Amino acid sequence: MGSCEERAERISATARARRLTIATAESLTGGRISTVLGAAPSSSEWYRGSIVAYASSVKHGLLQVPDGPVVSESSARAMATTVAELLDADVAVAVTGVGGPGPQDGQPRGTVWFGVLSGGAARTELRHFDGEPGEVVEATTAHALFLLDDALLRESQARPTDFGPASVRRA
């Protein structure tokens, strides 16, 4: 089992234990993050779904991305916030970037913005990945799952379980 699948199992366990729901908004990964999460144990209990918005017009129209470049911090933030609202999720991760082979919005291949919504607040992160388009997609998927896992742990620490204070361990 690969690291993405192992991470998805941890995400599943945390989400189920804390009764948290998850949503994703994807662009350059084209549904890869959703595929990994949907195959995780008991995903129907915690995974709300994904919006795969590959076209810029879909990002602007459906995910309320502001006018301007879609490979940007403001896009990632809007995508994470809007998908959480649309799919009624506690935690959301969004990715928008340039898989390649050429640049987009003045950004070189491998430029990826991540948006994460948890605890009612969105944060963003910029990464640059090397490689061919497929490698960029895989690296983006792996990092999005890492950020989602981290956000769930943070959210878990803020929410007690039915059995007392949250006890969180990092794997």
What can you see in these coordinates?
The protein is α/β, with parallel strands linked by helices. Helices cover 44% and strands 20% of the residues. The chain has six helices and five strands. A five-stranded mixed sheet has the order 2-1-3-4-5, sandwiched between helices. Strand 4 (111-118) and strand 5 (121-128) form a beta hairpin. Helix 1 (3-18) runs parallel beside helix 6 (133-158). The longest helix is centred in the last third of the chain and has 26 residues, at 133-158. The chain is globular, with a radius of gyration of 15 Å. The two termini are 16 Å apart.
Give a quick precis of the structure.
The protein is of the alpha/beta class and 171 residues long.
Topology:
Blueprint: H1 3-18, E1 22-26, H2 32-38, H3 43-46, E2 47-52, H4 56-62, H5 73-87, E3 91-97, E4 111-118, E5 121-128, H6 133-158
Parallel strand pairs: 1-2, 1-3
Antiparallel strand pairs: 3-4, 4-5
Helix pairs in contact: 1-6
Primary descriptors:
171 residues, alpha/beta, five-stranded mixed beta sheet, 6 helices, 44% helix, disordered C terminus
Number of helices: 6
Approximately how much beta-strand content do the residues carry?
Answer: 15-25%
Structural shape: globular
What kind of sheet is the major sheet? 5 strands, mixed
Overall pLDDT level: 91
How do the helices and strands follow one another from N- to C-terminus?
A: HEHHEHHEEEH
Q: How many beta strands in the DSSP annotation? A: 5
Q: Which structural category do the helix and sheet elements fall into?
A: alpha/beta
Rg, nearest Å: 15 Å
Helix content class:
40-55%
The low-confidence parts are 160-171
The end-to-end distance, rounded to whole angstroms, is: 16 Å
How would you classify the quaternary structure?
A: single chain
Strand order of the main beta sheet, please? 2-1-3-4-5
